[in-house]
Amino acid sequence: MYGLIGRIRAVAGKRAELAAILVPREGGMPGCLSYVVAEDPDDADALWVTEVWVDEAAHRASLQLPQVQAAIARGRPMIAGFDRRVVTNVLGGIGLRSR
Amino acid sequence: MYGLIGRIRAVAGKRAELAAILVPREGGMPGCLSYVVAEDPDDADALWVTEVWVDEAAHRASLQLPQVQAAIARGRPMIAGFDRRVVTNVLGGIGLRSR
């Protein structure tokens, strides 16, 4: 399984609005096993996004989905940057959607 | 919801053995909504653990569970250290177990 751990910096004051766009609804992203959006309590502009996908190809394919493209378009003006990004090899755990 | 993102360093050569202990089974940890264990592809001794709990109290309580205490006891000799730890305020997402 393909994992991503990343921190996104919102434009000042825009974190809540950006988070509302980033939090996905269940379903609709094939191969997505987990996608969690969280605030960084120590930085009022930062969000952590942790993702688990069946494989890297599933993640890449998701970026072409119409609803993801729309979310990217709406979110982009509120994103100041991506300041951490780790790719992981996910072994297992609790809360991974069944494939 | 209470989130944790952490990186654990295994004693050299012990990552796989440590990971086998850390990957939890479904059920048995009240208040645990997600618990994912992953290898860091860039560091042969590092594991990432990302967790989501109903609240901080649920996480704290889990540390007293017999099976968690047993896992800690078995894993401790294989842990060299914890080199990253971020507490987050989880907003939502995909793959969170229902409470």
UniProtKB/TrEMBL annotation, chains A, B:
<dbReference type="InterPro" id="IPR011008">
    <property type="entry name" value="Dimeric_a/b-barrel"/>
</dbReference>
<dbReference type="GO" id="GO:0004497">
    <property type="term" value="F:monooxygenase activity"/>
</dbReference>
<keyword id="KW-0560">Oxidoreductase</keyword>
<dbReference type="Pfam" id="PF03992">
    <property type="entry name" value="ABM"/>
</dbReference>
<feature type="domain" description="ABM">
    <location>
        <begin position="2"/>
        <end position="87"/>
    </location>
</feature>
<protein>
    <submittedName>
        <fullName>Antibiotic biosynthesis monooxygenase</fullName>
    </submittedName>
</protein>
<keyword id="KW-0503">Monooxygenase</keyword>
<dbReference type="InterPro" id="IPR007138">
    <property type="entry name" value="ABM_dom"/>
</dbReference>
